[in-house]
Amino acid sequence: MDFAYTVQRSGKRRKLTIVVERDRTVVVHAPMGATDEAIRQVVEAKRHWIFEKRKDPRKYRDLPHPPGKELVNGESALYLGRQYRVEVVAAGLDAVQFNQRFLVPASKVAKRKMALREWYIARANEKILPRVSSFARSLGVEFQRARIVDNRYRWGSCTIKDSVNFNWRLIKAPTFVIDYVIAHELAHLIEANHTARFWNVVRAQVPKVEEARVWLREQGQALEEEV
C-alpha cells in the first residue's frame, strides 16, 4: 500500500468509515471487533477513492499555513465572511473591540498572532453555540456537549459520545457556511455516514449546501491565517 493510515477503534461504532483529513492523513474509524486484516481489505477496496481524495488540489494543499498579516493600521481581518479594517489604538483599550472595524490596543500589536485569537474564540462561543442548539431543536436531535475547539484539519466533528465540536476559525466564515458545518455535524446524530439520507437531512436545514462546500474549498485556507 502506498500510503499509511491510522486506526481508531470504538465499542460504540457499528460501521467502518474512512476519513481523509485536510492534511491528507488517512484515518479509519472501526468497531472494536474489527480485525487488522478486515480493515486492510476495506482500505484496499477504497484505494482509488482515497488516492482521489488525497490529491484533490481544491481541498488538500501542500502549502504551509499562511503566516498571517501584520496588525497595522490599514490592514484587514476576516469576520463572518467580510474583511474589516484594523485600527491600532494608542490608549484607552486593554482588549480587542469591534465596531465595524477592529480596534486593537497598541500594546497587543507585538503579539499579533494572539491579538485577535481570543476575540475570535469568544465570538465563536457567543454566536456559534446558540446556533447549534437551534439547529438541534429543528432536527429533533440531542447532543451531549457542544464545544468550540482549536483544530487545524477539521471545521467540525461529531464524536461517538454524541458531542459536537466546531473549529473557532469558522467565526471568520459567512453565516451560511457556519450553518452548513453545524447542520452537517448534527446530521451525523441521525445518520453516521454520508449517505443520500444524510445529505437530504443537511439540505433540508441549509439550502446553500453546495455553495457552502465550494466556499470552504476555495476560501477555507484564508480562515487558517493567524489574523
TrEMBL record:
A Pfam entry, by short name: YgjP-like
Alphabetical list of Gene3D superfamilies matching this protein: Metalloproteases ('zincins'), catalytic domain (3.30.2010.10)
Domain (YgjP-like metallopeptidase): residue spans on this chain: 14-218
Protein name, entry field: M48 family metallopeptidase
Organism of this sequence: Rhodanobacter ginsengisoli
